[in-house]
């Protein structure tokens, strides 16, 4: 490497070397005194890298940390992140440890580029089948982690910036909004749960979710102490939050205050809900089930498994998945239901259905918003109310009658 000229007779600068395999190397000392090198196939590409190194040096980029992985900065993010709700924090942790940590998280910071981020996010949609909205959440947590590296002068810019722009054009329109069950679908669902069988035990918990609009964490956190059978009211004063302990290490449940200030509320208990709760109490008394769950000092929970442990929201979603498939099998077997295909039901869909039924019934939106635990009615109108075909037809009929009478 003593040759100070390229094969094309271009003079090498200080720190540049021609290697034995006719590739090029540039050596320099970073601000911590450590010797570093970069390589290129041509002198032109090497000098482009040199310019970037010079720019990084002038801007104070810390090369000593470029060999750290994304996961290293995730651990740092967990230590210093403040100012977000514990529920939101738990969601970020779950997304990161499930989708980023096992693969992309092992990437060294020096290899994290805009294109590598875009390809990673695209693979989540194409290869893993995630929705665009889920990938948007994953990009958000990844961006927060890498932003710390930017502030630490390890990265010049955040590689996540603008990474969703092209993906949104390609996949953004594929995002499916959560919809409510129609009246016919709701009846099929409730009739299925009411039948004797292996899913009948879930009838009370799903009935409470469907007829109160409570969030799944609020329902699973209900204690008998929160039920006022005399005044037919349910006190919503806390929620159960799921925390992942990391891959292969199980999970932990915590008790948190309700999601927002408006979420601390009292929900009227309809006769159907009261009947469901009493049915659950009778089932537990018959089977000798006692509450064995204590979470942050809270106990005497209502919805328990056979071992007396609080139900897990993920397992409830799995049950709803199985229920949806079995209902579809009955429909396709020829059951007269006037429904061609039954949707895939999940926990949040039941809350959405409650809000939509309230809207269709003409209920006051302020009261509906308060029962859902929202800060205001705009969120209720924007997010949780669908207009079914029957409802729209009924509403347009009102306009038709008005015109006929007026004219």
Task: Please write the CATH class name of the largest domain.
Answer: Mainly Alpha
Distance between the termini: 97 Å
Main β-sheet, spatial strand arrangement: 1-2-3
Note the total helix count. 15
CATH superfamily of the largest domain: Intergrase catalytic core
Give the biggest sheet: 3 strands, antiparallel
Q: What is the name of the CATH architecture of the largest domain?
A: Orthogonal Bundle
Explain what you see.
This protein is mainly alpha-helical. It folds into three domains: 16-60; 70-174, DNA polymerase, domain 1 (Orthogonal Bundle); 183-394, Orthogonal Bundle (hpI Integrase, Chain A). 48% of the residues lie in helices and 9% in strands. The chain is built from 15 helices and eight strands. It has helices at residues 43-58, 70-80, 86-100, 114-126, 132-151, 163-171, 183-194, 203-212, 216-220, 271-287, 313-332, 347-360, 365-372, 377-383, 389-406; strands at residues 16-18, 24-29, 35-40, 227-228, 233-236, 239-244, 251-256, 265-268. The strands form three sheets. The chain has a three-stranded antiparallel sheet, with helices on one face. Strand 4 and strand 5 (233-236) form a beta hairpin. Helix 3 crosses helix 5 (132-151), helix 4 (114-126) runs parallel beside helix 6 (163-171) and helix 8 (203-212) runs antiparallel to helix 10 (271-287). It is elongated. The mean pLDDT is 84.
List keywords for this structure.
single chain; 407 residues; mainly alpha; DNA polymerase, domain 1; hpI Integrase, Chain A; 3 domains; three-stranded antiparallel beta sheet; 15 helices; 8 strands; elongated
């Amino acid at each position: 490497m003593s040759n100070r000229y390229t094969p094309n007779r271009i003079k090498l600068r200080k720190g540049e070397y021609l290697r034995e395999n006719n590739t090029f190397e540039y050596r320099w000392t970073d601000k911590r005194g450590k010797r570093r090198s970069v390589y290129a196939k041509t002198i032109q590409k090497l000098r482009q890298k040199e310019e970037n190194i010079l720019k990084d040096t002038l801007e104070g980029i810390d090369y000593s940390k470029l060999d750290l992985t994304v996961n290293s900065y995730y651990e740092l993010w967990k230590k210093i992140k403040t100012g977000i709700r514990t529920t939101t924090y738990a969601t970020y942790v779950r997304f990161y440890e499930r989708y980023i940590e096992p693969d992309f998280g092992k990437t060294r910071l020096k290899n994290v580029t805009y294109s590598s981020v875009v390809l990673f996010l695209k693979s989540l949609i194409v290869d893993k089948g995630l929705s665009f909205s889920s990938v948007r959440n994953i990009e958000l947590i990844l961006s927060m982690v890498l932003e710390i590296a930017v502030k630490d002068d390890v990265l010049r810019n955040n590689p996540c910036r603008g990474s969703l722009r092209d993906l949104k054009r390609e996949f953004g329109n594929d995002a499916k909004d959560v919809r409510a069950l129609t009246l016919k679908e709701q009846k099929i669902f409730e009739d299925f749960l009411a039948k004797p069988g292996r899913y009948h035990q879930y009838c009370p918990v799903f009935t409470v979710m469907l007829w109160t609009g409570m969030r799944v964490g609020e329902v699973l956190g209900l204690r008998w102490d929160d039920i006022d059978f005399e005044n037919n009211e349910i006190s919503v004063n806390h929620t159960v939050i799921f925390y992942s302990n990391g891959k292969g290490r199980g999970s932990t449940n915590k008790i948190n205050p309700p999601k927002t200030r408006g979420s601390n509320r009292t929900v009227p208990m309809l006769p159907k809900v009261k009947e469901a709760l009493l049915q659950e109490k009778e089932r537990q008394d018959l089977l000798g089930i006692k509450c064995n769950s204590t979470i942050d000092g809270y106990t005497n929970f209502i919805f328990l498994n056979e071992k007396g442990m609080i139900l897990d929201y993920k397992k409830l979603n799995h049950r709803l998945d199985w229920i949806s498939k079995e209902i579809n099998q009955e429909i396709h077997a020829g059951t007269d239901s006037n429904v061609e295909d039954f949707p895939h039901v999940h926990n949040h869909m039941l809350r959405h259905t409650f809000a939509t039924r309230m809207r269709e019934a003409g209920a006051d939106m302020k009261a509906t918003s308060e029962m859902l635990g929202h800060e205001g009615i705009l969120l209720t109108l924007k997010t949780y109310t669908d207009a079914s075909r029957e409802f729209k037809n009924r509403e347009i009929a009102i306009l038709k009658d008005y015109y006929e009478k007026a004219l």
